[in-house]
Amino acid sequence: MPGWPKMVRYSFIVGLALLSVQFVLGMIANIYATPPYGPSNIGVHYVMGYVLAAVGLIIIIMAALSRLRGPVAFAIAGFASIVIAGESGREFAFISQQSGIYSLSMALFWLIAFTAYFLGQQLSVSKGEAAKN
């Protein structure tokens, strides 16, 4: 199906945009939030994590429907990284703010997800162009 590579590419771009917004929200939360006790403005960051997970599942489905193996692999890697980053964030916010390992893990898995989505987008472009020729 000729339209799938383009749709997959756009879904990866949406994932990249949402990951970028999540990064900014995370930086704001890092400066101003005081979870789990007292007032906090971290709620939007949490909700965005769930939105990212849902979009990640949609990206996997779209990549699978495109039958492009590379984008499927990167979609799965990106989704798994989002889930691990989210779990690291939960651990950091509610269990151990004293340990920076959860904050580091959150940042590293965000970077892995971003890289996976970027590479998936690039691969879907090259596969889509090859299908046209």
How many domains is the backbone divided into?
1
Largest sheet: none
Mean pLDDT: 84
Number of E-type strands: 0
Strand content: under 5%
The residue ranges in which pLDDT falls below 50 over 5 or more consecutive positions are none
Derived from helix and strand composition plus strand pairing, the structural class reads: mainly alpha
Percent range for helical residues? Answer: over 70%
Description:
The chain has 133 residues and is mainly α. The chain has one domain (4-132). Helix content is 83%, strand content 0%. It contains four helices and no strands. Helix 1 runs antiparallel to helix 2 (43-66) and helix 3 (69-94) packs antiparallel against helix 4. The longest helix is centred in the last third of the chain and has 32 residues, at 101-132. The radius of gyration is 16 Å and the shape is elongated. The two termini are 14 Å apart. The mean pLDDT is 84.
Give a brief outline of the structure.
This protein is mostly helical and 133 residues long. It has one domain (4-132).
In terms of topology, how is this protein built?
Blueprint: H1 4-32, H2 43-66, H3 69-94, H4 101-132
